[in-house]
Design goal:
Largest sheet: 3 strands, mixed
Strand content: 5-15%
CATH architecture of the domain at 563-731: 3-Layer(aba) Sandwich
Radius of gyration: 63 Å
CATH topology of the domain at 563-731: Rossmann fold
Strand order of the largest sheet: 1-3-4
Shape: flat
CATH superfamily of the domain at 563-731: P-loop containing nucleotide triphosphate hydrolases
Structural class: mainly alpha
Helix content: 55-70%
Number of strands: 15
Distance between the termini: 162 Å
Number of helices: 19
Amino acid sequence: IDDIKQALKMKQIEEEDHQKRIVNTRRTIEDLKVELDKLGDQPDTTPQISAISVELREIQERTVRIEAEKADLRRERDNVMAESRSLQKKLNDMNNLMNVKEEKLRTRHRDTHTALLWLRENRQLFSGNIHEPMMLVINVKDHQNAKYVENHISFHDLRAFVFQRKDDMEKFLVEVRDKMNLKVNTISAPEVSCSGRPPSRNIESMRRFGFFTYLREMFNAPDEVMSYLCSQYKVHDVPVGNEQTKALINTVIQEPYLKVLYTTDERYTVKRSIYSNKTSTSNSAVQKSQYLIITVDAEERRQLEQQLRACESKLQEIDERMKTLQTEFAALNRHENELLSEKKRLSELKGKKKQLEQKIGTKQDSLRQMEQNVIDLKKVEEETNAKIKAISFQKVTIVSVLTAEIKTKAKLSMEKVYLALETVGLTAEKNKLENDCREGASELKTMDIKCSRLEQRKVQLTEKCKGLLKSAKSICRMQMDEPLPEGLRNAFSNLPDTLDEVDSMLNEERSRAECFTGLSENVVEEYSRREQEIEHLEKELEKKIADLNAYRQNISEAKERWLIPLKQLIEQINDKFSNFFRSMQCAGEVDLHTENEEEYDKYGIRIRVKFHSSTQLHELTAHHQSGGERSVSTMLYLMALQELNRCPFRVVDEINQGMDPINERRVFDIVVQTACKETTSQYFFITPKLLQNLQYAEEMTVLCVHNGPHMLPPHKWDIKAFIRRLERKARA
């Protein structure tokens, strides 16, 4: 019935939609007729469409030109990109060589490499030029010549940083040495550049000996680095020769202007005595290069970087032009779309009247067809009611049969329930009777057994009690008919009253006895032995503790007897050392240094000095101070010691070598003041040279020692005649 009703409903909905479509079609036809009437007065759009077509052709031509130019730019960009990749590859190859150099530096001297990384990250802290270690910035033009340059420059300088300004160097040392505790070498370039110094001889005049170039011409380096190498190592004046030079070496070393020279595989150093003018020559083999053999042409690298920047600039110009063309192309596309839309609108306007007439005809045909296909709802409803009526008759017949079956089922169900309840009751009663029967039989059997056992137990207990009583009286030496004494009565009165409690107490006492009787003699002996051993160890421990306290007391007393005078002595040295430095407008101090006071083998004297007002006190080491500053500090420390150590005389040999004139003059004045005191030892001050206008004291004696091949024999020397000649020369 529901399906039939649903089918009727669908027909009704379908007819309703059909009527709506008819109404909508009629409305559409009316609207189209109204629109057709409005188009009767529209002007001709053909001239406008022609003008738009001309403009569209111009836009297409411009678009083609832009596409062609873009294609040219893309080809040019591809060429520039290929060139840029080639340049970048060459530059990467050079950078890889630099990385190999850096890896060698890291392997050989990790502190310098760590300082290099720090400098690269903090270069903005410095105002002047700072050059990385020489081995990284020196570029040998021909790798076969790297051995000469590397053998000529010490490794300490090859790993040294070169500074244009001294204040930058001081700042760098504070950060790297003092704060980071790194061992690095630094160099301050000469204030006046020496990189352009000419050699003492033109190389052409030396070709007859086989010399073909000077050491400076074999490599490139930044100006400050080259200036230092020319000043310190005279690379502009060290010639390099070939096998011909080696063959003529005996003649070559006689040339007065040659001090250091190289042949193919050897280095020669020529020294001339200032006294005898005799020549001494030493030679050594030229070792293979380890660091400078990796060559990177700095000029070529600079050119590559410049070309790479030019390529990047060209790519940027191409990208900008491409962006401009793309913008213009997009604008043309937008304008073209606007024109096409306008042309389409005009074309549609031109053919719209015809289109409207066609649409009206089509809609009218559709309307006639829809009016012919109208559904007869009245007929459909009658057919539906007839189907529902027939199904209802079938439904009534089925319900009647179902009602009779339900009544029969209900009656049978009630009978089933009554029988089930009766069965349950009977089953329960049967089970109860069976259980009662079994329990009664079992209980009867159990009672018979218990009674028999109780009789037997009673007889046994009676006999046992009589036996125990007899044994007890026998043990107590009593007759069977004799009553219990008062003491036993009192003892028994303290025992429990029931048999179970007596058995429990008896078992407890037996357990205690078994605990003691189970011990062996060995266990008891081991216990006694361990007890004595513990007592002995406790006494020994007390003795050891007492000895340890005594040792500590002795060590403390010995330490005080040694350490207090030592500190007083060092304090005296510090006072004198500080006074010497203050007299030179510098600062210095001496103290006893140790990290742990109990490690006596690590006690040491620490000397800290400051030669510049802008710096802090630094420990005297081979790395932080210059050679002259170390000489000054050493001399003043020895002078601070001299008044504490009594000796007949002291000898100082060439202590002023390596000092700058200012420090040499200061140290000489302090030596004179100290040596001329009445309480000091005699001084022998040996030196090959002295500054002019030094202050001399009356207590000093000057001895000039002359030496050389042209000196007079001692027996021919006449000091008076020498003085007379000087006086005559002075009067003349």
